[in-house]
Design goal:
Number of helices: 7
Number of strands: 2
Strand content: under 5%
Order of helices and strands: HHHEEHHHH
């Protein structure tokens, strides 16, 4: 359901939140290394998220990316919808443009249940909720 880019964006924001708890900023290279992603991809993602004010960016020698308390309280769905678009939680599981209850694809009913559960999860979970298990060593951002 989520693209590689979107998964990378979520991991990058969680990593930034874990650093920002200590008042630290992080650069593209550092983030890419810690979430096992390419610097190019991470750079493009961070620029997109900063333009939408989901994260912050500071230029200069003591610059980098960071996330403030308000941004840590945002739902993960903000990140998902910024990267994937606002229709991500409405799309057909097989990618059909005219899939609906009246004109369903073969997996419509089951996929709708799963998609609705994922949407609920991403709307209820805040960035800080996903950051704490990582910070405490209970969850990881790399495989």
């Amino acid at each position: 359901m989520l693209s590689y880019t979107c998964k990378t964006a979520i991991k990058a924001v969680i990593y930034l939140a874990s650093r920002s708890d200590r008042g630290e900023k992080a650069g593209i290279r550092e983030i890419a290394e810690h979430i096992d992603a390419s610097e190019h991809t991470v750079g493009k993602i961070l620029q997109t998220l900063a333009r939408q004010n989901l994260i912050n960016s500071l230029k200069g020698p003591s610059g980098g990316f960071f996330i403030n308390k308000t941004q840590q309280n945002q739902p993960i769905s903000n990140i998902v919808e910024t990267i994937e678009g606002n229709q991500i939680f409405k799309e057909c599981g097989l990618g059909l443009s005219k899939c609906s209850a009246r004109h369903p694809c073969p997996i419509h009913d089951e996929y709708k249940v799963a998609r609705d559960m994922i949407e609920k999860l991403f709307r209820e979970k805040k960035v800080k909720d996903l950051c704490h298990p990582v910070t405490n060593g209970l969850a990881y951002l790399t495989g």
